[in-house]
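User: quick one, sequence for these tokens?
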């Protein structure tokens, strides 16, 4: 008897039966543009072997003007068919099913040739789109249908027509982006004509026995978005036009509501798909922030959908489904929804990976093979880098001992998990602890390793991490001055007025901790929706609350400071920084840049800004001024002739994060 009877049940969609209810949602990996199709094939084949029911590729353009950026991968002709054939062959050899997503970006194209229903520039692209005429619209439809036919020729099992997230098809649906007065604009019947015609023509191009998924924006999260009646009308029309499955799209890319970040509660948007259940005959797929078999099973058991889409969880663990089916859910590497190595990479033009699993999209580069020469290896420090190195080396057959001076594993991850909105880090630390036990690593907690402890080992890995930088601000009064670790660990409770010195990732985390006062925001969907102004789309267009966002009042008055003149939070994650800035702004946090620090006195923190002296009134000053390497042990071992590897923060503290630490640990473990 499986623990996940709904999730693992087959789904018969007429011409094909999917082995289970799990769809690997579309993700751009960056491999699509490298020209190394076998590497892309290896990425999907690994996931096919992991048991996922059906996979959808990253968005593939139907024509150059529809590309997300110039040079983005497309399905334009015979050469593309031959390239994609390599991918589909590898997937089929691995026993999987794969559909190609056809993505026409419209006005979202970072592309001077971009086209749209009307010449309304998007806030997320510097290029104004060209308004299409009748012939231009016909060309787009024909190109999309031709791309679908080529996908079939290339061996795909289906296509997903991307109709959500504010892309081209979605742009026809709402009056903000569709100002036309011809048969493609005006009434809703006219505005939905293009998406419906696209589905009809795609079906005609691919024949009846080919999977056709339509991704439908069920809650636009933008002003003047679709009404719920329009969503239902469109769903029925795309079903009649030939869609086999309807997948859920949540929010346009320009929406000012987070939709997939770690602070978004799990399954926060399943309620939207649930509203559409029973309104159409084809199976519906729920999406967004579904990241464990338990959550996925519950979404299905609750009748919210017929199938679930998970994308990033398959970067974190390619064998998600197989492990769930084998009753090994605790072994599934959890996607913590950080975006740090996936979406942030995509927006930086880099190949995707995963913070938790650096092998993602690098399957052919990082191989973890059994060692020919097992050795005794000591790893010092059970933070992210040390844990990753120890687990990887042990998996390969080395005899590994992991020393940690604290009474538990996790290092800095134990601080991150205390931050409201970062609750997913609890699961990450638990997973690491489970992997350490399962891989046979000898764990010595509460033991600060000294050189003599390391004498009998063949190699030593120094992963001792970082220590906080003392910014050297003079203290001349009774105001409480503490480090960030004191506050996040709960050793110190800050007063009602707080000045935070340093506005990097940790300064932002600490400010969040202070204003939210321990609330587990990502576990309270109602409070989260109120804060961001998310409503039932049946009561307001686009699902934006008519009363606007209503955040809970802050627990403290917080001022966040930095010396640099730039906007605080500018260097936070590309796709998540705006969420942190918006959250703190909503909580009334004062953010000051370009400050010089004076002294900490009885009144608070003296500063000079724009030549003006002032005092930030504060009961507590919290130092978040970056870190320095904890390199004492490495220095003591240097010159002893021992084989020593220094990784993570102990090697370089600047810009250290869990992504770099885990990557360094795994790569070292793979070659020791
Ligand atoms: P950080 O990002 O380097 O920020 C350090 C802050 O301290 C900066 O605001 C810096 O700004 C200030 N500072 C540096 N030297 C100072 C000095 N001598 N006196 C006063 N202020 C000083 O470091 P962090 O905040 O400690 O974060 C460490 C790493 O963890 C970073 O790489 C960060 O990206 C990562 N992290 C990421 C997240 C995330 O959500 N992705 C969250 C937490 C941490 P000024 O020099 O302008 O004053
Ligand atoms: Fe998930 Fe973060 Fe990995 Fe992306 S980088 S797949 S969000 S854990």
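Assistant:
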């Amino acid at each position: 008897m499986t623990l996940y009877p709904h999730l693992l049940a087959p789904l018969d969609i007429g011409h094909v039966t999917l082995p289970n209810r799990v769809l690997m949602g579309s993700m751009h990996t960056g491999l699509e543009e490298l020209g190394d199709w076998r590497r892309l094939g290896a990425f999907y084949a690994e996931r096919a072997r992991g048991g996922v029911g059906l996979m959808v590729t990253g968005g593939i353009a139907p024509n150059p003007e529809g590309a997300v950026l110039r040079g983005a991968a497309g399905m334009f002709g015979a050469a593309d068919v031959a390239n994609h054939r390599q991918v589909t062959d590898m997937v089929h050899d691995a026993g999987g099913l794969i559909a190609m997503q056809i993505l026409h970006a419209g006005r979202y194209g970072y592309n001077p040739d971009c086209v749209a229903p009307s010449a309304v520039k998007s806030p997320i692209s510097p290029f104004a789109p060209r308004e299409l005429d009748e012939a231009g619209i016909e060309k787009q439809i024909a190109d999309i249908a031709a791309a679908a036919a080529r996908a079939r020729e290339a061996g795909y099992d289906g296509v997903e027509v991307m109709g959500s997230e504010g892309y081209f098809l979605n742009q026809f649906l709402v009056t903000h982006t569709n100002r036309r007065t011809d048969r493609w604009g005006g009434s809703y019947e006219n505005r939905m004509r293009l998406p419906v015609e696209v589905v009809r023509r795609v079906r005609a191009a691919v024949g009846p026995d080919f999977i056709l998924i339509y991704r439908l924006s069920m809650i636009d999260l933008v002003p003047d978005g679709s009404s719920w009646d329009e969503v239902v009308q469109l769903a029925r029309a795309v079903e009649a036009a030939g869609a086999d499955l309807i997948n859920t799209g949540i929010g346009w890319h320009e929406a000012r509501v987070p939709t997939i970040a770690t602070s978004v509660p799990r399954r926060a948007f399943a309620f939207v798909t649930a509203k559409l259940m029973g309104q159409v005959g084809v199976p519906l797929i729920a999406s967004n922030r579904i990241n464990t078999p338990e959550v996925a099973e519950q979404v299905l058991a609750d009748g919210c959908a017929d199938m679930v889409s998970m994308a990033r969880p398959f970067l974190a663990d390619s064998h998600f489904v197989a492990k769930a089916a084998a009753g090994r859910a605790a072994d599934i590497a959890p996607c913590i929804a950080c975006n740090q190595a996936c979406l942030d990479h995509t927006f930086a033009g880099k190949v995707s990976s995963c913070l938790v699993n650096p092998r993602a999209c690098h399957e052919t580069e990082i191989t973890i093979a059994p060692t020919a020469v097992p050795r005794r290896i000591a790893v010092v420090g059970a933070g992210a880098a040390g844990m990753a190195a120890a687990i990887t080396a042990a998996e390969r057959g080395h005899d590994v001992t992991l020393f940690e001076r604290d009474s538990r594993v996790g290092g800095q991850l134990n601080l991150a998990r205390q931050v409201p909105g970062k609750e997913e880090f609890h699961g990450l630390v638990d997973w690491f602890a489970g992997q350490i036990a399962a891989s046979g690593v000898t764990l010595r907690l509460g033991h600060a390793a000294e050189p003599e402890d390391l004498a009998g080992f063949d190699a030593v890995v120094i992963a001792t991490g970082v220590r906080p930088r003392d910014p050297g601000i003079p203290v001349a009064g009774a105001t409480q001055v503490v480090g960030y670790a004191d506050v996040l660990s709960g050793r110190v409770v800050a007063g009602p007025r707080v000045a935070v010195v340093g506005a990097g990732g940790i300064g932002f985390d600490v400010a969040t901790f202070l204003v939210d006062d321990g609330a587990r925001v990502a576990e309270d969907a109602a409070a989260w929706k109120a804060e961001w102004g998310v409503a039932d789309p049946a009561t307001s267009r686009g699902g934006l609350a008519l009363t606007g966002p209503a955040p809970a009042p802050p627990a403290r008055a917080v001022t966040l400071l930095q010396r640099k003149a730039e906007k605080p939070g500018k260097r936070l994650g590309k796709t998540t920084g705006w969420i942190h800035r918006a959250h703190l702004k909503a909580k009334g946090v004062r953010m000051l840049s370009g400050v010089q620090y004076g002294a900490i006195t009885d009144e608070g923190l003296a500063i000079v800004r724009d030549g003006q002296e002032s005092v930030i009134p504060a009961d507590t000053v919290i130092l978040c001024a970056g870190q320095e390497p904890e390199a004492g042990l490495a220095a003591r071992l240097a010159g002893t002739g021992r084989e020593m590897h220094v990784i993570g923060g102990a090697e370089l503290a600047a810009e250290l994060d869990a992504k770099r630490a885990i990557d360094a640990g795994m790569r070292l473990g793979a070659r020791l």
